[in-house]
C-alpha cells in the first residue's frame, strides 16, 4: 500500500483565512462547534416520527398501497435520522465527549450498518482522500458505474447516465446486506492498515445484522400475518426509496464536471494542499434552502462539511455563508447548484465518463496511473 500525502497541510490563502474566520465565528458568538438545542430538538422530533411510523406499520390498520407508503416514509425518516445522528457521531461532531459520540454512532448499527466499518471507509478513505482514485472508495464502488477518470472505461458505460439511478436505488440494500462483509475482507482504508479487524467488531457486525432482520422483517411479518413474499416486497421497496435518497444526496456532490480529481506522483504526493483540494473536489446544492439543509443533515452544504467535518451539521447553513464570501475574495472556485442543476450536471458528467476516457482534461489521467 502506497501512503499518500498532500503538499502542504495549510496554504497561505483561501483555506488559511477560512480556518481563521470559522474559528472567529464560534469565538465571537460564544457558541460550541458541537450539538446545540436545535440539534437535540431535531433528533427527538425525528425519533418520535420514526417510532410512530413503525408503530403504525405494526398496527394492522394499513394494507396494500397504504402499508407500502408507510414503509417508504419510515425508510426516509430513518435516513434523515442517520444523516443527522449517525453521520455526525462518526465524525465526533455531536459532543466533545468521545463516549457520547461512540454511543450515538451506534445509530448506524440500529439500521443494520456497522458503525466501525462505516467510520473506517468514510473518515479514513473518503474524507482523507476525497476524489483520489485508489484511495477514495466512494468513487471506486462498482465496475458497473464509472465515477472517476482513472477507472477503466467499458462499452456499457456509455449508457450509465441512463441506468445509474436504478443502481443508486440499490445502494441501501447493498450497504446493509453486503458491503460490511466485503469491508471485513478489506484491510487498507486510506493510509490506515488494519489486520486483523477486532473480534469485538465482528461480533457486533453479526449482532447488527440479526437485529435489523428481526425488527425490520420478522416482527412485521409475524404481527401483520402476511406472506414472506409480501413482507420482503415492502422491505425491498423501502430500501429502494432510501437508496435513491442517499444516492442523489451523496454521489453528485463529488461527481460533476467541475469536481476536481487528482493523482499522487511517484512519491505518493498530491501537489495541492488538503483544504483547497477538498473544496475543489466538492460542490454544494441548494445551500440557501433551509428545508433541504434540514432533511439532509447539512449534506447539501457539503463543502463546509469536508473542510470541517468535526463541526456539527446544525451550524453548516451559517458557516457556508463564510465559505462563499471567503471564496469570492480569493477568486476560489466555490460551486453551488440548485437541486435540479446538480442532478443534471451529475448525469451529464456520467455520460461524459462513459463516452470519453478523460473528460476532465487533467493530463494526469491520460497516463492512467494506479495506486497499488
Automatic annotation (TrEMBL):
<dbReference type="GO" id="GO:0016717">
    <property type="term" value="F:oxidoreductase activity, acting on paired donors, with oxidation of a pair of donors resulting in the reduction of molecular oxygen to two molecules of water"/>
</dbReference>
<keyword id="KW-0812">Transmembrane</keyword>
<feature type="transmembrane region" description="Helical">
    <location>
        <begin position="39"/>
        <end position="59"/>
    </location>
</feature>
<feature type="transmembrane region" description="Helical">
    <location>
        <begin position="232"/>
        <end position="253"/>
    </location>
</feature>
<dbReference type="GO" id="GO:0016020">
    <property type="term" value="C:membrane"/>
</dbReference>
<feature type="transmembrane region" description="Helical">
    <location>
        <begin position="202"/>
        <end position="220"/>
    </location>
</feature>
<feature type="transmembrane region" description="Helical">
    <location>
        <begin position="162"/>
        <end position="181"/>
    </location>
</feature>
<feature type="transmembrane region" description="Helical">
    <location>
        <begin position="65"/>
        <end position="87"/>
    </location>
</feature>
<dbReference type="Pfam" id="PF00487">
    <property type="entry name" value="FA_desaturase"/>
</dbReference>
<keyword id="KW-0472">Membrane</keyword>
<dbReference type="GO" id="GO:0008610">
    <property type="term" value="P:lipid biosynthetic process"/>
</dbReference>
<dbReference type="InterPro" id="IPR005804">
    <property type="entry name" value="FA_desaturase_dom"/>
</dbReference>
<feature type="domain" description="Fatty acid desaturase">
    <location>
        <begin position="68"/>
        <end position="336"/>
    </location>
</feature>
<protein>
    <submittedName>
        <fullName>Linoleoyl-CoA desaturase</fullName>
    </submittedName>
</protein>
<feature type="transmembrane region" description="Helical">
    <location>
        <begin position="99"/>
        <end position="118"/>
    </location>
</feature>
<dbReference type="InterPro" id="IPR012171">
    <property type="entry name" value="Fatty_acid_desaturase"/>
</dbReference>
<keyword id="KW-1133">Transmembrane helix</keyword>
Amino acid at each position: 500500500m502506497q501512503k499518500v500525502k498532500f503538499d502542504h497541510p495549510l496554504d497561505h490563502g483561501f483555506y488559511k483565512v477560512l480556518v481563521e474566520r470559522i474559528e472567529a465565528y464560534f469565538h465571537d458568538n460564544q457558541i460550541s462547534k458541537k450539538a446545540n438545542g436545535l440539534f437535540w430538538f431535531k433528533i427527538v422530533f425525528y425519533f418520535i416520527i420514526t417510532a410512530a411510523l413503525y408503530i403504525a406499520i405494526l398496527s394492522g390498520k394499513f394494507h396494500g398501497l397504504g402499508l407500502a407508503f408507510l414503509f417508504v416514509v419510515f425508510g426516509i425518516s430513518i435516513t434523515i435520522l442517520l444523516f443527522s445522528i449517525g453521520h455526525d457521531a462518526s465524525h465526533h461532531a455531536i459532543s466533545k465527549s468521545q463516549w457520547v459520540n461512540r454511543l450515538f454512532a451506534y445509530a448506524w448499527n440500529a439500521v443494520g450498518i456497522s458503525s466501525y466499518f462505516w467510520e473506517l471507509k468514510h473518515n479514513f478513505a473518503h474524507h482523507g482522500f476525497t476524489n483520489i482514485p485508489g484511495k477514495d472508495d466512494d468513487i471506486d464502488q462498482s465496475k458497473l458505474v464509472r465515477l472517476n477518470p482513472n477507472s477503466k472505461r467499458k462499452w456499457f458505460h456509455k449508457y450509465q447516465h441512463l441506468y445509474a439511478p436504478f443502481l443508486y436505488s440499490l445502494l441501501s440494500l447493498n450497504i446493509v446486506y453486503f458491503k460490511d462483509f466485503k469491508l471485513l475482507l478489506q484491510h487498507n482504508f486510506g493510509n490506515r492498515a488494519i489486520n486483523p479487524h477486532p473480534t469485538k467488531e465482528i461480533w457486533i457486525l453479526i449482532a447488527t445484522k440479526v437485529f435489523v432482520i428481526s425488527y425490520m422483517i420478522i416482527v412485521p411479518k409475524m404481527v401483520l400475518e402476511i406472506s414472506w413474499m409480501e413482507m420482503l416486497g415492502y422491505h425491498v421497496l423501502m430500501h429502494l426509496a432510501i437508496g435513491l435518497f442517499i444516492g442523489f444526496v451523496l454521489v453528485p456532490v463529488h461527481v460533476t464536471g467541475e469536481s476536481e480529481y487528482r493523482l499522487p506522483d511517484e512519491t505518493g504526493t498530491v501537489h495541492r494542499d488538503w483544504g483547497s483540494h477538498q473544496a475543489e473536489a466538492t460542490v454544494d446544492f441548494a445551500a440557501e434552502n433551509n428545508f433541504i439543509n434540514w432533511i439532509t443533515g447539512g449534506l447539501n452544504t457539503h463543502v463546509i462539511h469536508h473542510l470541517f467535518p468535526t463541526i456539527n451539521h446544525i451550524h453548516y447553513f451559517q458557516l457556508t455563508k463564510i465559505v462563499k464570501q471567503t471564496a469570492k475574495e480569493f477568486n476560489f472556485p466555490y460551486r453551488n447548484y440548485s437541486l435540479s442543476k446538480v442532478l443534471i450536471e451529475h448525469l451529464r458528467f456520467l455520460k461524459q465518463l462513459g463516452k470519453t476516457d478523460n473528460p476532465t482534461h487533467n493530463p494526469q489521467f491520460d497516463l492512467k496511473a494506479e495506486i497499488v
